[in-house]
Specification:
256 residues, alpha+beta, Jelly Rolls, 7-stranded antiparallel sheet, 4-stranded antiparallel sheet, 14 strands, globular, disordered N terminus
């Protein structure tokens, strides 16, 4: 049997005409069926893909939010004061005027010895950032010189429970207040020492203030492991989360 165009010629010389309607009708029906199945399959795949994208995005957003919480920021201020004032590191001795230096840190782990006793070296020892001096000589000055000492104030948030103990390595004195409760560290001059005291206030996420004084010459040491905590995610993280959710909702509607 041979095919020429729409005609069929059989071996016996007989020919016939195959109508387009009969020959394509089953195929047309099959095409419609296949398109329907393909439509359902594509829609199902798109739904699964959208759900996967939502789970991935939510996971990323949670990780970013967790990162912003875990990486707490502590605000610090530093003043050069009389050595007499630096001998008593209490909040009442913190100057009310602008600080000589403002900065931020993620931990309180400072140390400075006779070979690196400058303000800059002390700040660098704990990875300070956003360092803003109010004059051009303060960072190169010594922490204690010619009757002039240094007073520092740190503020931030901590997560604490009643009965929790805190150990501080320090030289010289400090005052640590958490949620209005003074832990009772020695605010006066000391040799390098380690002190452990117990917090007796309320449990929860509370503000703290730590005042530290450096006097009487090197070394200068302030090291304390506080459970620092940011109270809210960073604005950029919230903006990213909101924008992403809006985009996913729009994508889901388009696919549906």
């Amino acid at each position: 049997m041979f095919f020429f165009g729409r005609h069929v010629i059989a071996d016996g010389g007989m020919s016939g005409f195959v109508t387009t309607k009969k020959s394509l009708s089953p195929l047309q029906g099959g095409e419609k069926t296949n398109l329907k199945i393909l439509g359902r399959t594509t829609k199902g795949r798109n739904t699964v893909k959208t759900r996967k994208m939502m789970f991935v995005f939510i996971g990323i957003a949670v990780a970013l939010m967790y990162g912003s919480v875990a990486q707490a920021t502590i605000s610090g201020s530093l003043w050069h004061v009389s050595e007499l004032t630096a001998n008593n590191a209490v909040p009442g001795n913190v100057p009310v005027g602008p600080a000589d230096v403002t900065f931020s840190v993620n931990s309180i782990n400072f140390s400075s010895f006779s070979t690196d006793y400058s303000v800059q070296s002390f700040l660098n020892s704990s990875g300070a950032f956003n360092i803003t001096p109010n004059n051009g000589t303060i960072l190169g000055s010594l922490l204690d010189f010619n009757g002039v000492g240094t007073l520092m104030s740190f503020t931030g948030m901590v997560t604490v429970v009643n009965g929790q103990s805190f150990t501080v390595a320090h030289d010289d004195g400090l005052t640590l207040i958490i949620g209005g409760t003074n832990l009772g560290f020695n605010p006066g001059p000391t040799a390098p020492t380690t002190s452990t005291l117990t917090y007796t206030g309320l449990s929860g996420n509370l503000p703290f203030q730590l005042v530290y004084g450096e006097c009487c010459g090197a070394p200068a040491v302030l090291q304390v492991d506080l459970p620092f905590k940011d109270t809210v995610p960073e604005p950029g993280t919230l903006l990213l989360l909101g924008s992403g959710l809006v985009g996913l909702v729009a994508l889901k509607r388009k696919l549906n």
